[in-house]
Amino acid sequence: MDNLKRAIEQHHRRLEGLLHDPLQRIAQRLPAAWPDREALDAVLEPAIREIPECTFLYAVNTAGVQLSDNIARTGLLPEYFGRDRSQRPYMKEVVPADGFLLSDAYISLYARRPSITALQLVRDAEGNALGFLGADFDLRNLPDIASLYEETTEWRQIKGDPSIRGAVFQQSRAESVMDREMESVLSILEELFTERGVFQAVLHFSSSRATVWTLDDPYRYRILTHEALSDPDTCLAFPHRDYPENAQIPSHAVRDVLDNFRALRFADETVYLRSASINLFNGMISLTFSCDGSHYMTWADFLDRSIDFWLGSTG
Asked: pTM of the predicted model, to two decimals?
């Protein structure tokens, strides 16, 4: 399981812990009102205040047909009475033995927003299933109970456009302006990374440009054209900054990474490097080749591989 999925599951479990008991308490009040529309509304209308984050409360029978109005914090929405919810994503999931289900997130029909639904099984006094109490939540209204997940550093290969891969052997590398000025370009980029506060860059070799992010202004990128990338005066537009102590890529390895980019750009006229990126803080490198295959890996993994390896692994 990757870090993104692990973070989603952890957040999901925390939400279950917050919502399970309040919905169970509300569901216990519903059998006496079942299946009368007005009686169900009378129970649910004050109950929604017990779950401040809830967008809608409602009751559905076991077939997924709505028996109550939608209960919003602003009042009743009668147009939802009788709605068939049986084909909605949350109605197709398997309800656990305890009768409580927190669905996977989905896009709501009402607001076209990422949403999530909790279902609590409603039983009569003999234990027979009557239907479900449903509670819809807009993701933006849920409590913020999770921290940002850490991106994985595992090697990943992602295939691109099949039409590009299928025609790769019918093309060849066209020399770009950056190709002709490569030595100057790499020296300037090394200076920007190690002495001038650039911590991330995406290098577009085929279109002769780079997009860079700096320590002084990390929320906005800057585009350097081939003229800027081949002119040492460009360095003067970036103030001197010490190399960040918490960078994952050591300063002495930056030039090695850039030199390997050059080698992959020129190694083969058919399968060649089209673009690449470096991020000093997560230590990651990305490569996109002429076949539209992309790779993501740590800088150490990248430097450990030979050129021959890359030419055989770009699909």
From this structure: 0.71
Instruction: Please report which helix (H) or strand (E) contains residue 23, including its range.
Output: helix 3-27
Residue 135 DSSP one-character state: E
- Helix 182-195 with 251-266: angle, nearest 10 deg: 160
Per-residue pLDDT, 147? 64
> Domain residue spans in the chain?
3-141, 156-311
Non-local CB neighbours of 301 within 8 Å, separated by 6+ positions: 155, 285
CATH of 3-141, one of 2.40.50.140, 3.30.450.20, 3.90.215.10, 1.10.540.10: 3.30.450.20
pLDDT, tens digit (0-9, with 9 covering 90-100), for 140-173? 888 776 666 566 666 565 564 444 444 444 466 6
Cβ atoms of 205 and 273 within 8 Å: the answer is: yes
**Contact criterion met (CB below 8 Å) for 80 and 60:** no
Residue identified by tokens 């279902």 is: 119
Asked whether the beta carbons of 231 and 273 are under 8 A apart, the reply is: no
Residue 199 sits at φ, ψ, to 5 deg, of: -115, -15
